[in-house]
Write a structure and sequence with these properties.
globular; 5-stranded parallel β-sheet; alpha/beta; 13 helices
Length: 401
């Protein structure tokens, strides 16, 4: 007899919908989900039990929600999955506080805090030989009379993303790209003025459009060894201020040399659970350079499931069924899109990629995770149609025609 379990997910975006869909496809279960608000992907859906609680990401409320749910389902394992950075951090910080039937497949909070701090993460990369962009770490007390070891354009971003988003301010962006030193100083001043006190990462901009980006998703078993890796070639990203860098179109591909570097990094750390890396190819020296690690599956995680490696199955097989997992590198070519086809073909210019997309669509090897045959109703269809139409407006505004 297979053990019974209930997935309990936290978040309200496309990440959590993709994971819920993976559970529904593989195990025919409807996960219970808590998020702060009734968000588009999780509205009018029949594949999850969604509850909005605007305090869901606060320590006391989060712990109360998990504890109450687990106590009401004492006879089964509760598989607790975070689909956003704040929830993943809360899970790691509270692992010892959960009831015994809660299964939390995450690293400890101290290690997580080290990894999400980009400065400390780059130190680990340097040790293993994983390349990253030329980087300068700026701290508030350093002021603005400093010399950078590289020229612009510059990329500026917080070393601690979770803390950064706790200090909202006008014009706040996920990542800043500026051409001059004067512009960079203005960005630094505006960020520190918001109350953010951690370090900021300043990097030499790697040239190249969205097609130079890669995304790598890995699953490491509870024994601390990598069990699955799936590399995605990003062809298009979002370009809104808050969404910049979010993937819009991905084709899976395989690069054994690159994957082996990250496998060595994760195994050296003794990492467990899902991890997700943003990487860019630098044509100047022919190297793939990592920007950061997400200590969870990424918001585009369904590109992995769509390629045949159902993300939910790794949690269940490893922690619930206690199966012995062997390493696999996913090499099944598949197209993942969360924008209309017209948007994809308008803003992806290279003939090579357009031809490949057309072939995969023709062969039926493509997916938009939000469109699920077993989760269709009139309200949801209308909502998705409106959302898809909005992409035409956003891309035209931020990328032109």
């Amino acid at each position: 007899m297979k053990k019974s379990f209930i997935p309990l997910l936290f978040a309200g975006d496309i990440n959590v919908y993709s994971v819920a869909r993976a559970f529904h496809e593989e195990y025919r279960v409807k996960p219970f989900v808590y998020g702060k608000y009734m968000s588009g992907p999780c509205m009018d859906t029949g594949i999850m039990n969604y509850t909005a609680n605007e305090n869901a990401d606060r320590q006391d409320t989060f712990l109360e929600l998990v504890t109450d749910f687990a106590n009401r389902h004492r006879d089964v394992d509760v598989l607790l999955i975070g689909c956003g950075d704040s929830y993943v951090q809360l899970i790691a910080e509270n692992k010892k506080n959960f009831p015994d039937n809660v299964v939390a497949p995450y690293i400890d909070a101290s290690l997580m805090n080290d990894l999400i701090n980009k400065e400390k993460f780059y130190e680990r990369c340097k040790k293993i030989g994983v390349d990253y962009p030329d980087t300068f770490v700026h701290r508030k007390e350093r002021g603005y009379s400093f010399t950078l070891p590289f020229d612009g354009p510059f990329i500026c971003k917080p070393s601690n993303g979770i803390e950064y988003w706790r200090h909202e301010f006008e014009g706040q962006k996920k990542v800043y790209k500026v051409d001059t030193r004067e512009e960079l100083d203005e960005v630094l001043k505006s960020i520190y003025a918001s109350g953010y006190d951690d370090s900021l990462i300043i990097q030499n901009f790697i040239p190249g459009d969205d097609t130079y980006m890669r995304v790598l998703t890995s699953y490491s078993g509870k024994d601390g060894k990598v069990k699955m890796m799936c590399l995605g070639h990003v062809l298009l990203e979002e370009h809104t201020p808050h969404g910049i860098g979010n993937h819009a179109v991905i084709i899976t591909e395989h690069n054994e040399e690159l994957e082996n570097k990250f496998r060595a990094l994760l195994d050296d750390i003794g990492y467990v659970g899902f991890s997700n890396f943003d990487i860019k190819y630098d044509r100047r020296d022919g190297k793939y350079k990592v920007f950061e690690i997400n200590t969870r599956q990424g918001r585009s995680n369904y590109y992995v499931t769509g390629a045949g490696a159902n993300v939910a199955s790794y949690f269940v097989r490893d922690y619930i069924y206690d199966e012995k997992l062997e390493f696999e590198a996913v090499d099944n070519e598949n197209l993942w899109m969360v924008v209309p086809k017209k948007v994809a073909f308008t803003y992806i210019k290279e003939k090579e990629y357009r031809d490949k997309m057309k072939r995969l669509i023709r062969e039926g090897r493509y997916v938009n995770p939000l469109y699920y045959d077993e989760d269709r109703n009139i309200k949801r269809s209308l909502r998705l149609a409106k959302s898809m139409a909005g992409h035409h407006v956003k891309f035209r505004k931020y990328m032109g025609k």
